Every structure is written in structure tokens, then in C-alpha cells.
């Protein structure tokens, strides 16, 4: 029941609907109970008198109880199913809010396809638990409790027969059901694996086409599909057993009732009408009992699904209530012996492979297990108004440094400060408002290009401001060639744009935000030298930002910076102006010479 605690809390908000639904459930079952009694009286009266007129009152009662049953059934289903849909809506909103609130470490621990599966397939399983699962079991129990005194009063031997059959069915269900939940959990986890594979292939369709991987991907998907079928068949065999077995048991019960009941009629212990009443009431019990097997599988599936959803809902979120807001526009960044290692829980390791993966890890001061340092002993001060450049070898920690400065990841306390405040004590939302980052991997939504540029801007989009930002990013001329210009809808992830156009769209987005700190994380790598020079020239003329931080491998991008930091293996190995670093003759000078030689060769 631990997995269902969230559902109970949400269901409490709809107590009135649920209580009303259960009230109509009792009225429905009351109608089911009284209608056979009216049939019994009508049949016995007509057999005794042979006059049709005598049964008209009973026929009217039968009609009344039938209408009571129908109306109550409709009201019951509407109220309970409506409550379940509202709980589903609220649960979906909770999941979405939580996904937006968790840190980036969460998304490094979970694959995209698996998260989509939890938000769709698992949520649907929970909805079925809330609807049929909540409705059918109380319905069956209330009907049995209402019918029990009447059935006993009609014939104790027949009632004992029915109770024995019900006992066998309940015993069977209690024996089989515990084995279903782990099967459902394994199945739902595998649905996440399949969804993730489909998402990866669709997202990387260009690569699939370029390397003619269609047949290979079909074989891989078939392997996944066969495993899915194998796991599903284990459940199908159990679920498929319930209905035939229950129908057989109830058919056998009908024969026993006719045999014993017939003898009681012959002996005068039962009237024909009473035997009919007993049979009809047992028939009314048949479907609820038959559905128990199906409902119990829904419940087990729903509990397993809710457990997977709770993995999202229970993920810890940083308490921001006591965090300080960053109100100043003049920002000074200070790193004091800054070191960072990605926690072991954030590492994405191979799954379902036979390889042995050996990874060394250590225990950090805060108790988190971590792998080797990505940054180590980094010290710097970046003052407001400066243009800072960061370069270095591949994998030297440049992007990690930017992720720490922008609050995407958190260092240990006492290592990184903004205006003298520890970054761990600053509200991430207020920090994000002060910093615009153009990341290496540009993500564009399937919306118009104007909407993509204005992303993150409060209030209505100002098209003139969007055009101005596009002009400064060197994108305006490209947009004017589009059929719909700024209203042009981009494909998923901006697939209709070139790499350079994507980067310039992201640059325009960051310029429109007008944050005091602007960070380019290798954001000019896909544009040509002429466009790069145009963008940098425009940036120098802008006054919407105060501090510019550029990560790049291109010396032409870095040379005008006030300070250039050179990273190697997570450490700052050089710092200074372009001329100072060239004179130093170390790593930066070698990179510059190498690029100069490459340029000469290309020329």
C-alpha cells in the first residue's frame, strides 16, 4: 500500500463524488436484489391462479427495479470514473511539475523513452486501477453482502454450494495474484526500453539513413519485440486462464443448483418461483465474480505502475525556501580551489551487456560516491564587464565549468561564489534570470522560429525585438528567405535548419533575453569565419549584457578577450591575454600555431 499513498491523498479531494458513486452502487445492487423477488412472486402467483391480471403489480415493480438499477448504474459509473479521470489529471500534472523541478542529475539517471513510458503507459495503468479497480471490487462485495441473507433464506444447501464455489475462486485468486505484480513491473520496464529505442532511432534517423542501418535497426527492434512478447505471454497465460476456469466453475454450479434445487421443488421445500429467484440472483453474482480475476490483474498492474511513477514523485528536490535571490546585474564570479566530480549516480553505464565495466570511484565529503575529478583546483575571478574566454583540450572540463557557473550542477560548498554569496545558497531561478547560455547542443522546439527565439521571455512576443535579435545573430537574412519568414514552423528539434542556423537561432534567443551575463559554449563552431566575425562585432556594440564568457577552440574567437583561461585535464594551466599566452609558448601557443598552419593549408 506504500506505493498507493499518493493516490489515496488525491482521491480524498474527490470524497463527495466517490461516496455518491458508492451510494448509487448500493442502490443498483438493491435493484438487482429486489427484481428477482418480484419475478418470484409473479411466477408463483400466476402458477397458482392462472390469471394474468394478478401479476400486473409485480410487473410494474420489476420495471421500477430495472429502471432503478439502470439509472443507479449510470450514476455510479459517471461519478466514480469521473473521479478517477480527475485524479489521473492531477497525477499527470504532478508528474510534469516534478520533471520540471528536478535537477539535471535525474535526467542522466533515466532514459527519455523510459520517462515517456512512465508518463503514458504507467499512468494509463493507474487510471484503470482507479476506475474499474476501485469500482468492481466494492461492487462485488456489496452485492454479495446484500444477496447473502436472501439466498440463505431461500435455501441454505444451495447457498452453501455457492459459498463453497466462491471460496475456491477467492483462494485461486489469492494464490495467483502475488505472482503477477513482478511480471507486470518487468513488462512495464521493458516497454520503457522499447520506447527509448524507438525515440533514439527516430531522433537519429538522419544517421540511420546515412549509414544504411535500416536492416540492422529492424533486427534490433525485432529482438526487443520478441522479448516483449515473451514477457507479455507469461501474463497472458495467467489472465487467459481466469475466464474459462470461472465460466466452467459457474456452469458446474448451475448444474448443481438445478440438481439440488429441483429436488427441493419436488419435495415442496422450494417453489418454482423461488428457484428462479435463486438462479437469477446467482447469475447477477456471476459477472462481478468473473471480473475479479481481470480486476485483480488491473490492480497489480496499477500498483506496479504507481511504484514506477513514485520513482519520479519521490525524487528529492532542492529546498529553495531559504535561498537568496540574485538581484544585482553586476555579477562577480569567484572560484576558490573549485573541484568537481560527477556523482556515481549520474553516470550512464552500459545496460544489458555482457561486458565487465570497471569504474573507480571515491566518497566525497558530503557522502556522495563520485568518479574522478572533472575539474580540480580551479581558481579565478571574473568581474562584471569583462570578456572572458575559455579554451583547452577536449574533455578538459570547459562545459562542466559553465554548467557549474550557470547552476545546472552544484559544486561543494565554499568553492564557487557570485558577489560573495555561495552559489549553493542562491535561488537557481534568480540565477537563470541573470545568465543566458548558448549550449553546444542547440535544442529547438517544433514551433515557429519567432517562438523559438522568444523562448523564455515573459509576456507577449514582440516581433520587432525578435527581428533585432535575429539581425545581431546574423540570422535575419536567412529567415527572410523562408516562405513564412518568422512564422516558419521548424521541424522537430529544428531539423529543417542547418547546424549554423540552429546555433544562430540559439544566439538570437540568448540576446533577446538581455541577461547581464552571456555565455557561449562553443556556440560558433558551426558558423563560418565571416559570420562569426559579424556576430562578435555585433556583440561588442550591444549593451544588453555586461559580461561575456566564450568557450571556443578557435583562436580567432578568443583573441580579443580580456582574459583567456586555458584548461587541461580539469586544471587551469595558463591564463592571460592573447599576446601574453603566445609569448608564453605553451599549450595556447601550440593551439594557435596549429590553427595557423591549418588555415595556411586551406588557403
UniProtKB/TrEMBL annotation:
Q: How does it sit in the membrane?
A: Multi-pass membrane protein
**Superkingdom assignment:** Bacteria
Q: By its UniProt entry, which InterPro entries does this protein fall under? A: AAA+_ATPase (IPR003593), ABC1_TM_dom (IPR011527), ABC1_TM_sf (IPR036640), ABC_transporter-like_ATP-bd (IPR003439), P-loop_NTPase (IPR027417), Type_1_exporter (IPR039421)
| Lineage, highest ranks first | Bacteria, candidate division KSB3
Q: Name one GO molecular function term.
A: ATP binding
- Spell out where the chain crosses the membrane: 53-76, 158-177, 240-260, 280-299
Origin species: candidate division KSB3 bacterium
Claim: Acetylation is one of the keywords in the record: no
- Location within or outside the cell: Cell membrane
Quick one: where is this thing mainly located? membrane
Q: Which residues form the ABC transporter domain?
A: 357-594
**Residue ranges of every copy of the ABC transmembrane type-1 domain listed in the record:** 21-301
Q: Which GO terms describe its cellular component?
A: plasma membrane
A Pfam family cross-referenced in the UniProt record is: ABC_tran
Sorted alphabetically, which keywords does the UniProt record give? ATP-binding, Cell membrane, Membrane, Nucleotide-binding, Transmembrane, Transmembrane helix, Transport
What SMART domains does the database record attribute to this sequence?
AAA
Name of the protein this chain belongs to: ABC transporter ATP-binding protein
